Amino acid sequence: MGKLIKFDHVNTHGDFEKVLDHFGIKYTKTGTQLRALCPFHEDTNPSLSVTLEAQGDAKENTWHCFGCKKSGSIIDFAALMTGKILRDGAELVAEVSGCSLAPARTSILKSGKGAERLKTGCKHAKRGKDRNPTENAPKSTTEPNAAKSRANPTNQPLKFTLPLVMEHEYVIQRFGADLAARYGVGVCDPESRSMMAGRCCVPIHNAAGELIAYAGRYLGDDPKEPRWLLPKGFEKRHILFNAHRVWGSLHVLLVEGFFDALHLNSLGIPAVACIGNAVSEEQVALLGELGVRRVTVLFDGDDEGQAAAVAAVPSLARALFVRLGSLPVGCDPDEAPEELLVEQARAVW
Known about the structure:
With 349 residues, the protein is of the alpha+beta class. Helix content is 29%, strand content 16%. The longest helix has 15 residues, at 303-317.
């Protein structure tokens, strides 16, 4: 099983000065600001600025080059320097800085980015093949208490877990044993009395990491059966799937479906899914609460997905920097070549 990495934790505890030293980059320090020659272009007058502590709109451990305009978190910097994916960048930052890749689980749930934060839901359905549940859906501030007051009572933490078979042929083919175990994906016993019986189930957590529901993908051939199933009363508009894994990421990819988000996450790329192809106001606000500043909309490469991506931009752009990603025609994010996905994640704005 791969290592658990909390990108927000590494971003917060990483030591930017040690990272610059690691790459042999000389710098000057004034207060909480570092200046250096930018390693990403020919630079003769130090144009790389590093912010060690949050100031105004600038978050801690972030950088910006006034010459080539590249910017990002300490993890983005390490990944660009090594030419590797974000997951590798996070591991390098942690190793060089002497910090852990993730906090203890109890501290995650007790922190302001845990139980004090949200307990919320998500929006619209995928179509066809691996599209996600029911075709309806609808829409936070940056203060934890404000988020808590908006918690949706219909999306409360579950008091049970479904017994799932992770060694099922479909699961192994789709994810492999390690990823299935990491993400808790498995098939519910066909003889079970659960509404998810016989379906491949994906656990859904709120942004605090609490299990609030399961989504079930139908594995049979009956065209009358919904491809994806969500519990009755589940409010998608308040949830971004995979949100609990992207705290503190300045740039995330926004996709449609569960499998898309998990595939990107397995590559070390921060990604969340709106569970469908419509983005609600609540989801836009939630992105801000997670610490996100830039979003690449990477919906499916069919006509419907691309039209939905364009339609999502105005609401996202009111609060965030937004760009449209691109995929080959007919290709979904969980089927796209890894190098193409990494390119989308590293897009310079």
